[in-house]
Amino acid sequence: MKRKLTSLLPYVIVLAADFYLLPLLIRGTGAAMLLMLCAMPLIAFVSAVVYGLLRGFSLLLPAAALVLFIPTIFIHYNSSAWVYAPVYAVIVLAGVGLGRIFYGKK
């Protein structure tokens, strides 16, 4: 289990940077919509696909995305952002699933 958690660490760091650092770039409603609806989901999805390609399927990364996003609601957003937490978890789950399809194929 420790090895699996260690292999998860780089992807969790990418998700943490995605959720905690990118919102610092928000300067208005347009930037917020671009980041929250385009950039952040794309980064989460791509990192999940890479994880799925290299490590196979795991529910730990979607769970980590859910847990990592919840504190950002209180830090960067308001209560209307609760809906994004499960949405990002589903996006990461889809990315891991897509990556798993091609896992081990060369």
How do the strands and helices of this protein lay out in sequence?
Layout: H1 2-20, H2 29-55, H3 60-75, H4 84-101
Give a description of the structure:
With 106 residues, the chain is an all-alpha fold. It has one domain. The protein is 75% helix and 0% strand. It is built from four helices and no strands. Helix 1 runs antiparallel to helix 2, helix 1 runs parallel beside helix 3 and helix 3 runs antiparallel to helix 4. The protein is elongated, with a radius of gyration of 14 Å.
Q: What is the radius of gyration? A: 14 Å
SS-derived structural category: mainly alpha
Q: Which spans have pLDDT < 50 for at least 5 consecutive residues? A: none
Q: What is the count of DSSP helices, taking H or I runs of 4+ residues?
A: 4
Biggest sheet: strands, sense, closure? Answer: none
Mean pLDDT: 91
Task: Report the span from N to C terminus.
Answer: 27 Å
Number of strands: 0
Could you say which overall geometry the principal axes of the C-alpha atoms support? elongated
